[in-house]
Every structure is written in C-alpha cells, then in structure tokens.
Amino acid sequence: MPQPCEPQPDDGKPPNAPPSGLPNLWPRVKPEFEIDEPLPDAGFETICARYAENPQRQLGAAAPPVYQTSTFIYPDAEAFEHRRTEAAATYDYSRCANPTNQILEAKLARLENAAWADCFGSGMGAISAAINACVKSGEHVVAVAHCYGPTRWYLEHLKRFGVETTFVNSVEPRDFVAAMRPETRLVYLESPTSGRFDVPEVPPVAAAARERGIVTIFDNSWATPYFQRPLDFGVDLVVHSASKYLNGHSDVVAGVAAGRDERLRRRLWKEAELCGAMLDPFAAWLMLRGLRTLALRMEQHQRSGLAVARMLEQHPKVRQVLHPGLESHAQHAVGRRQLRGYSGLFSFELKDGSREAMHAFLNRLKLFGLGVSWGGYESLVLGGTTFSDRPDRPENLIRLSVGLESIDDLIADLKRALEAPRTS
User: Fold this and answer.
1) 120-152 pLDDT, tens digit each
2) Which residues are designated catalytic?
3) Which of 2, 3, 29, 74 is the most exposed place for a label (fewest CB within 10 A)?
4) CA 45 to CA 293: how far, in whole Å?
5) Any alpha helices (H) in 180-325, and if so which ranges?
C-alpha cells in the first residue's frame, strides 16, 4: 500500500522556467486555502477521506458543501477595489477559484506529492493548458508516440501555430534524448502508454530533460497516484483525465494538473483563466465523493484486471495480451520498478484478425459495454476501427476496461464471447 510523502524542497537547481509570452493578467494566483491536517503522516486512504476538510467550518456537516455560485459578493468598495492584489487574494469569480474546488485540489496535490494542483473541466482542458504553458511558436516538443489520441491530435494541431512535435516510437530513454533539440521546450510522456501499454523508463528521460532546461509533462491517468507518483521520478508536471479512475463513477468530466514549481503554476493558471476550462463546483463535489473510495477501487481494478488478463493469455483464440503486470510483457521489469500496482485497463489481440471476428466478439458480450472512456465502475470494451484507426495499432486490437463487477461474471462473459460459434 503506498504511503504519501511530503512535497520535497528544490534540489538546489533553478526550476525549469517556461518561456515568457503571456500578458500578466493577474498579479496573483488563487486565494490561499486554509488546510487542516491533524495527521501530517496520514496514509493514502486517510488523505482521500479527510484531508483539507474541517466539519467545524462547515456547520458540523460531515461532507463539505457545494459552493455552487458563479460570483462572490464583496463587503465594501474598498475590498472590491483591492481584490486582485497579492495581499487581498479573495474569491471573486468561480472561473478563477472556488472553495469546493480548492478542497479537491488540496487533496489531489497531497496525493501526487505535489505542492499544488489545479482542476479543469476536462482532461484535455488540463492537458492543453499544460502544453500551452510550456511552448510557443518556433519551439519543439518531444512526445511518446503511443500517447492518448486527443493529446496527439492536439500536438499535431499546434503545428499550425509554429510548434513542431517529434513523436518517439520507442521505450528506450536514449531515443527520447536523441530527439531533443536546442529549441525543445517540452517532453510529453505516458507510462504505460495508451493502446499498446508500453512502459518507457521515465527517470532517465526526466533527468536528461532537466539538464537541458526542458519541462516534462506526464499523464498519470492510468496508474493514479495510488500506483505511481511521476513527480518523484523528476517530472515537472502531472496531468490526469480525472473523469477516469480519480472520479471512478462515470458521471463527471474533469481534468487535473499538479506540480511543484510555482512559476510553472502561474503560467498554467493564466492559461486556464484565458481558456475558461475550469471545473464546475458540483463536479468537484462529486469528485470528492469519488476520491473517498479511490484506494479500494484501484485494488479491485488491479485484482480483476490481472485475473482477466491471465485468463486471456491462456485462451487459444487470443494472440497476445498487452498488460504490464504479466511477466510476458516486454517491459514487465521496468513496470515493477516504476509502478506499485496495475489498473484494470489493458489490450489484447485476437488470433483471427478479420473485421467479422472482431464484430462477432464485441456483439456477443453482455457485461462489457461497447463505449469510449474507462476507469469507471462499469466494464467497457473498445475495438474495431474506432480504436485501431492509427498505424501503430493492429486492426484486431481490443481494449478492456475491467470494472467492479464480479470477476467470475466478467470472465464468464469474455469466455462466452470468445467461444461461441460464429453464425454466418
């Protein structure tokens, strides 16, 4: 079971400073949120359940309230006039800051071993703001090739604004280092990667980037801080699609960015305000509810996911299973070093690569719903052209998101779909 660590001080080196270019719209960042921490050495589960909450400030309510408001009222003209000064730092508009959101952000920062966290209205809201905070026209990005599809599309989209990206189709640190240029300002990483679930070795890449003054961003949606803390690898910024495991109930679309560098945070927050992709307070409240069971859910996703993967690995109609927790995985040893456990998301290939075999399998499933996204309580499957429309993915690749249903029921559902005779 992972134990959280206090945010670590700087190592003496100057923090990576992203390039300038945005106007200084605000002389401050968010109002400081008062955090109650009666147990400074609290475990992961305690942080999820209790950190940054104080019922005595909530009229005794066990659950924090939802500050479902767009604007905040000032007591007098003087307070309003000075609202944007560093000393005042008060709430004024929920696009900028909201007390419900800040409870959530405090929890997420603590879980990721970060100094701060900011929440967004979607995972891509967090990812695009983080990328925009690091690069401008004429600069260069190095990114893992098998990244989340919309992230890749966004990086390709930035070419029209003069930002070029080199996608590295490798797990070897030396290949990421070789792709870095004098104008490189950002390295974008996932480990495990999307779709193929390769496990690039992160610490050497992060160290090489830091030596060159390059910012690193890491998408930690797959593992969550329960199984992996990328900031401890030397990464500068962690992002999440919080719609997935962090919320875990398939009823919220949200994103998170977390880090330790205050200068990077100020740039990120300006991007967030300019783009307006902030999280709604009610969605933040739902995420607080979801976080309370994060550790329990991730343990169950791990147990069920590995059980399903091992069954599929032995099935005669399956060509290969791409799950980093299996010893057959090419980077299993790297995963053992970087990960404390495994989520329930992985892929496998059918031996029969025909479109007909793929559709027959998908249509016979009863418990695995055919749909996008993952990380909720329900099991999902994705396959066919929707999932394999990239050259790095074979047509017979199927992705499973193993949910919280009975593992016996899930295995029976998959076996029935694999073994049922094909009708003409």
Assistant:
1) 999 999 999 999 999 999 999 999 999 999 999
2) 95, 148, 219, 244
3) 3
4) 8
5) 202-211, 224-227, 262-275, 281-291, 294-313
